[in-house]
Amino acid sequence: MTSDPIDRRATARIDRIPLGVMYMLGATVMFAASSAVAKWQVASYPAIEVLFFRALAGIVTIAVLILPRTGFAVFRTNRLRDHAGRSTTQAVAQCLIVIAFGMMPLAGAIAINFSSPIFAALFAVVWLKEKIGLARGLALAAGFLGVLLVAAPGADTFRVGALFALGNAILFGSVTAAVRGMTVTESADTLTMYQMVFLAIFYTALAPFFFTAPTGADLSMMLFNGVINALGQYWWTRSLSMAPPAAVGPFYYFHLVWAIVLGFVFWGDVPTLGLIAGSAIVVVSGIFLLWHESAKKARMLEEAMAAN
């Protein structure tokens, strides 16, 4: 007896979940390492310069990974303005988080960055006309509480740094909501390539105004940072293409684990009670939002299939 084609596709998707999880875990290691390198570099060089060299190496790396498969057809789009707007917002967000790295513990900045799904949900309500609902509303409120716990303790520089990290989370949340709407017409490869192109253009335009001649060793590290960040971006995209977000998304939060370890090893940052408690709340609320959105999407798909 021949199995149903839908069942075969579902089985193939499930069989790729372990590989998707491995890609996601690999991406978190790359992102944490990139964040640590950026924190180290921003102590000696302007944030724009650090991001310029990261974008320069990143676009080359992504092009090597994507263009051999897609060719220049990957750039076909009718939404060039949307790509430009989304990438410009992301460029500003990246500036804010790199500045935050230089002003506060690495794990604290990343923990606050994890609140971006909260803001993505809010922007989805405004732009995509999605409803909040009781479950989503409770998750949003809990996430805000977690951010407050992470941001409140510490010295004045910690609080100022937390504002930059929070600004990044808000902007990145808007980017996430925008990408959610763009995926209807744009592939993951197209979104990634345009992101890297516009980021490179943005930082190249600003680099002459924020430039300090780097040493050979520092230049090498800046370019290396771009390679590992781009590799993390590519693995993250591959992970989501292999398995449902609800299956691999929670593993993204291992980024925080590696950040805590790197912060302790290289800067002697000991996690505070506020950081641990706030991070736990932010992570749990983020995972709940991910599960809630995935379950809602699955129900809508089932209803659409039943109607047909």
Brief sketch in words of this structure:
The protein is an all-alpha fold and 308 residues long. It has helices spanning 5-15, 17-42, 47-70, 80-101, 106-113, 116-127, 133-151, 156-182, 188-206, 216-242, 245-248, 254-267, 273-307. It is built from 13 helices and no strands.
Describe the structure.
By secondary structure, this protein is mainly alpha-helical. The protein has one domain. Helix content is 81%, strand content 0%. It has 13 helices and no strands. Helix 6 crosses helix 7 (133-151).
Shape: globular
Element-level helix/strand string: HHHHHHHHHHHHH
Helix content: over 70%
The quaternary structure here is: single chain
Q: How many separate domains make up the residues?
A: 1
* Secondary structural class: mainly alpha
Largest sheet: none
Q: Helical element count?
A: 13
Radius of gyration: 20 Å
Number of E-state strands: 0
